[in-house]
TrEMBL record:
Keywords: Hydrolase, Metal-binding, Nuclease, Nucleus. GO terms for molecular function: hydrolase activity; metal ion binding; nuclease activity. This is DDE Tnp4 domain-containing protein. Residues 28-114 form the DDE Tnp4 domain. Its main location: nucleus.
Amino acid sequence: MPTTLNEQQETIRKFRSIANFLTVIGAIDYTHIRVKKVIADGGQLYINRKGFSSINGQVVCDADLKIMDIVTRWRGSVHDSRIFRECRLKQRFEAGAFSGILLGDSGYPCTPYLFTA
C-alpha cells in the first residue's frame, strides 16, 4: 500500500483518470486458490461455496493492477468479509493511515473507507 501522502495522491490520481473516482486508493477482492483435497481432520473447512478445496486469497491492487496487499492464510470456507474484518489493512484504515478509500464488491461491508457495489 502507498505509505507517503505523495504516493497515496498519485494512486488516487490514477484511479481518477480511469473512471473519475475521486478518492479511490485501491480495489479489493478475493479469489479461491485451488489446492489438493485435504484429507486431515478439518479438511471440510477447505471446501469453498463452489464445492472444491481452496485457500481464500484477498488482494488489493492499484489502478495499474499492481498488487499492493495480499492475504492468503484463510481456508476456502471463510467468507471474504471475515478476512477483511480480521486483516491488518482494515486496522490501518481505521487508524487513518490512508487518505483514500477502497472499492470492493457486495461481499464486503460498506464503511467510510470501503465502498461496495
